[in-house]
Amino acid sequence: MAVKVFIADDHYMVVEGIRSMLLTEMNIEWMGHAMNAASCLAFLHLQQPDVLLLDINLPDKSGIDLCKEIKEKYPDIHILGLSSFNQQSYIQKMIQNGASGYVLKNASLEEIVKAIEVAMRGDIFLSSEASVTMRENKDAQIPVITRREKEVLKLIAEGLTNKQMAEKLFISTTTVDTHRNNLLSKFNVKNTANLIRMAVQFDFI
Amino acid sequence: MAVKVFIADDHYMVVEGIRSMLLTEMNIEWMGHAMNAASCLAFLHLQQPDVLLLDINLPDKSGIDLCKEIKEKYPDIHILGLSSFNQQSYIQKMIQNGASGYVLKNASLEEIVKAIEVAMRGDIFLSSEASVTMRENKDAQIPVITRREKEVLKLIAEGLTNKQMAEKLFISTTTVDTHRNNLLSKFNVKNTANLIRMAVQFDFI
DNA sequence: GTGAACCTCCCCTTTTTCCATGATTTTGAA
DNA sequence: TTCAAAATCATGGAAAAAGGGGAGGTTCAC
Predict the structure, then answer these.
(1) pTM (2 decimals)?
(2) Which of A89, A156, A185, B69 has a CA between 20 and 30 Å from the CA of residue A43?
């Protein structure tokens, strides 16, 4: 029985590349592709693949959120994250949301086939570079920040001062200052410059 | 006479995707691919394609710098930038460095073929989304910063204070302050947070 | 309903950044 | 060689952030 594979990625070349690579694999059945989250969901409503290759950067929805959504509706589908960004934050989030693994877009045919096999067995596959990233950065955890802190963080990135933020959020400047200091300690950084750089890296902005 | 095409991209899927797409085009001759700048240059030393599809994010060198280098050595090669980041800064830099155009990685077969044709005629091709980006952001120019300013910018992003930077660069803190203020005015921003965000966006960090 | 986490607020001090202005030396391209 | 840009340094003052401590009210899950 061939493994049914579907892919959701808005990069046509990536779709073509994977399709072209998987053509040679006899025990893999290519079901097609979707260029955005909406049409992916529409397809899944009609039929379900065994393995779904899911881009983390779809135009209409974050692949990370979509992953969670799909796993809730169709727990039997094995999802493999697909991305060119070798970033620990993404990897962790995808796995947390039920993905069976994570493949980088410079993966070879062997890696993809391996990932599909591993996912089908119910195990988790991380492409070599991705697993290196996870090991390297195991101490650089993604901070857990609150809703308010996230708001403040975004305003800081926009260049607002504590005073301006206070006016915008209808709170006192000292409160903003507290949130700000909490952000610094949660991100384990020394100043704003550092904070913003990390925030961008962790995709908070 | 078929157009000879070569590609430099470390994303195997992209390479496969484009190869697969161009297979159907009879007047295009696929010369092969390189996964990094070094092997790309080595190939060009032996033979030259008519059109070179060049990723802007090669592992060993920025495609933007590589573009300049290649155009100096082989002015007859038409270079098409290739990227998944629809960012004006990249587009402008590639064109400035002699590229004949810029294709996004979600381009269709038609777009790529068109880009190759336009490039062969000596004109410039921008994929539809890329040209929209250029028009939208025409007022958000990429600042031209000096070598020293770039150094300071990176150290700011790493969280160093003026004093620490001064020690590291063997200059006085007032000089660092001058560079810093120049950066702020060149980026047209009000504070560090803003600066870092823009710098990340413009790929200075 | 209890506790932990969150949000809110305040005070104080020190450090750092931001801003304006002006000047000398070095460097690199025309 | 010459001229502009870049890099260097300085003074002084205003504004903001960083760092520390303490504290009351709310919310939400167990």
Answers:
(1) 0.68
(2) A89
